[in-house]
């Protein structure tokens, strides 16, 4: 008897169909292993990373590895909505992830390759990512999104300068470049984060038929925010970093003042929405500490203060946004997975513990390792919870539930 036997689909047969899967996973693994290697690995006797001193490697991998992969995952996931093109998939996506992964390996191993080759390997990810985005934007004429191409290219150029200075024996130059990249990423967080939070919040309020004032920044407030950000970056580069932090603090507080009208109390009914808001609040908290480090450097160092933003805000927002891709879906409504309830508070706890370093000067190493351990635990739990999102047909849309128009119905109680 002849019978047609259907091949059983492989578990991860759709893995390369959606860019958020490999790129978000790459970002999570980088977050986990970069801290596991240093500073935790140093206490366990592991070899030090290839970039010296190790703190430069630590800063480099979090800025140009972890954050760059997360940016790539977000931009390529949003790209089909901007351009009406198919998502990047298959060989091109595999090549992009391969270039990112090879760069991580080159940076962690002893530096035996020529500096030019190391720089080229690291730059290749940014060049390919910018080419992919620019090509789809050009084809669809969605030129308003070209700013993301400029962001990716700017990160790539900064990476070139960072690695060149580090390999030529000018660590202080790499340190300054890293701080400029940090301020640039803060600006990106403030602008893009505010828009994303507003969009997701508005949709959730409409789903739950909760009446509120307009969600989002008004055109005038948006222009003011952009102007203040430009002034802040100029002050940081040419005048005084303390003044720059003060301007950026005012900018983020302006946005939070606007957010207070978005039914903030009701939003805590949704862990996915609440996580976005709380992570954003870490931005002004971090700027407050950075201002303190400028006015009282003997009591609080900038190196300690910036962790409020890098861990609490940047990592928190990355986890909060990518957690939406792994959320359970019920009739188009997103529900956080159990791992999300554990992982994101742990990330914020890691930030709080790291900020306590100046309070325990005799136990600095212990506090740093404790914070790093909590961080790694958070990302390990989050990765485990994210695994179901890596197989099967990709949801559409990826980062949000079904779109709901505003309703005139009675608000849900």
Describe this structure in words.
This protein is globular. The chain contains 14 helices and two strands. Mean pLDDT is 92; it is low at 1-5 and 407-413. It is 70% helix and 1% strand. The protein has 413 residues and is mainly alpha-helical. It starts with 19 loop residues before the first helix and ends in a 27-residue tail after the last helix. Helix 13 (338-355) packs antiparallel against helix 14. The protein has helices spanning 20-43, 54-83, 90-108, 115-140, 146-167, 171-207, 219-238, 241-259, 264-267, 271-295, 302-305, 307-325, 338-355, 364-386; strands at residues 328-330, 333-335. The longest helix is centred in the middle third of the chain and has 37 residues, at 171-207. Strands 1-2 form a two-stranded antiparallel ribbon.
Computed over alpha carbons, the radius of gyration is 22 Å
Number of strands: 2
Total of DSSP H or I helical runs spanning 4+ residues = 14
Distance between the ends:
62 Å
Unreliable spans: 1-5, 407-413
Categorize the overall geometry: globular
Report the mean per-residue pLDDT as an integer: 92
Order of helices and strands: HHHHHHHHHHHHEEHH
Give the proportion of residues in helices: over 70%
Strand content: under 5%
Q: How is the largest sheet built, in terms of strand order?
A: 1-2
Structural class: mainly alpha
Taking the sheet with the most strands, its summary is: 2 strands, antiparallel
